[in-house]
Amino acid sequence: MTHSNWNCPQCHHQNISGDLIKCPVCGKKRNRWGYWDCRYCGTKQIRADHKECPNCGKAKDRDVKFYLHDDSPVEFVDEVSGESAVRIRKQNWICPYCSQQNDDSVQTCTYCGAQRSESQERYHDIPAPQAPPDPNAEAINALKQRNQKKTQRACCLALALFFLLPIFVSIIKNLAEVRAEKRIRTADLVSAEWESDIYLETLKTFTDSDWELPSDARLIRTAQEDYRYIDHYESRTREVWIDEPDDNDWDDDDWDDGGGWDDGGWEDYGDGQFGMFSLPLLMLRPALPTAAFYWDTEYYEEPIYATRKQTKYYYEYDAWVDGRTVHVNGGADEPPHYGALSLADNEREKSRAISYYVSFNDRGKTLRLQCSESQFYEYIKDNTVSYRIKDAYSNPDYRLIDPE
User: Fold this and answer.
1) Which H or E element spans position 274?
2) How far apart are CA 251 and CA 290, in angstroms?
3) Domain extent listing, the chain
C-alpha cells in the first residue's frame, strides 16, 4: 500500500515520503487511524474519523473504544489541519483572574468563566517561585554529589559482577573439564558382548498418479482433469509490522523507516488516533540489541494461476523398502557370527554389520559402550577398560581409548 506524502506539523518540513513514519528532520512521528465497532448494527472496523456508522447511520458513542487492526492496511493521519489533523499534545493554560489550570482544549476557564483570549500564559511557561537561599545549600549539594558518586560506583561494580562473574565461572568450568578430559581412567571389565545384524529389503507394490507416466510404472487408467499451473507473476506490495531486534543498528537515530531503538509500540490517544511511544531504556541501551518497531513496505511477486484440461495417469510400481532384520548376539566366550538366512521371493539382502560392546562401572553406575573390534579383544585380555570423560560436570561423555 502506497501512502501520500505529508508535511511535518512540528518543524514544517515539506513533502516527506508517504512511506516514512518519522520526520527525517525533527523526528516527529506520524499517527495511525484506529477503528471502532458499531454497537447498534454490529458493523466492524469503522475508521475513527467516521462519526457515524456507514451501515445504520448511528453516531458513535462518546465512550467508544478504539483499537488497531493489524490485518487491515495501515492508514496514517496524513492531514495537518482540520478534523484529521495530526495530534499534537499542547500545554495547559492558566487563568489570569483565578489562577485555575485549564486544559488546552477548552477556551473558557472552568472555575471563573474568563475567556482564554485574555490569558497570555501557559502552565509550563510560568516561572517557578524562587525559594530563599539556604545557608547550608553548599554542604547539602556536596553531600548529594558524594552519595551520587558512591551510588554510581556501586552500580558499576554490580554491573561488572553481573557480566564478568558468568565469564569467570565458565572459564573455571572449562579448565576443569579440559583437565578431566585429559585424565585416563581405568575400570574393571564387567561384561563383553557382540551383536550381528543382517538387514533385508522387501519388494512392495505401490499406486500413485501424476501428469507424466514413469518409465517403470504400469498404467492402470487415464483421466482428463484440471491441471493448475503458474501463468505469470504480478508485482505486489504489502505493509508488514517489524518488531524484531536488529543487532546491526546500535546508534542509528535517523532511520527512514520511522522506528528507533527506543520506540516501544503504538499508544492510544483516545480520539481515534494511535501514535508511537518510547521505552525508558536509556540505562540499558549499551546492553540491549536495537529493537525496531515500525511498519514497512514489502515488495513481492505473486504467482497468478490458470487451469487447463490435461491427461492424468494413474499407475502402480514396485519399490524396495526396508524389511526385517536377522539379529544374533553373544558373549566373549563365543566367536561373532551371523544368523541363518532364508530369503523369501520378494526379499533381498541390503547390508551386514557386527557391533562390539563392553560394560564397566563408573561412579556407582554401570555403563555399556560400543567399541572397536581391536579394543574389544584387548579389554577381554586385560580384563580392564580404559577411557576418558569429556564434559565431566555438565553432561558426561565417555570416550573409550586403546589400553596403553
Assistant:
1) strand 273-278
2) 8
3) 1-88+244-292, 133-182, 185-197+330-400
Spatial CB neighbours of 96, under 8 Å, sequence gap ≥ 6? 114, 118, 119, 120, 121
Over residues 276-333, the pLDDT tens digits come to 665 444 444 444 444 456 677 888 999 999 999 999 999 999 999 999 999 999 998 9
Q: What is the DSSP letter of 76?
A: B
Residue with cell 499451473: 229
User: How far apart (Å, rounded) are the C-alpha atoms in residues 101 and 97?
Assistant: 11
Which region holds residue 179: left if phi is over 0, alpha if psi is between -120 and 50, else beta?
alpha
Strand locations in 22-175, DSSP E?
31-33, 35-36, 46-47, 93-94, 101-102
- As to burial, measured by CB atoms within 10 angstroms (0-12 exposed, 13-18 middle, 19+ buried), residue 325 is exposed
Q: Report which residue type is found at 262.
A: D
pLDDT score for 22: 76
Q: Closest Cα partner for 121 from 105, 137, 100, 138? A: 100
Cα-atom radius of gyration of the chain, to the nearest Å?
39
User: In sequence order, which residues have a C-beta less than 8 Å from that of residue 363 and are 6 or more positions away?
Assistant: none
Q: Could you give the CA distance from residue 268 to residue 252 in angstroms, rounded to a whole number?
A: 26
Q: Which residue is listed with cell 473558557?
A: 108
Q: Which residues contact 245 (CB under 8 A, 6 or more apart)?
A: 289, 290, 291, 292
Residues 6+ apart with CB under 8 A from 238: 1, 297, 298, 300
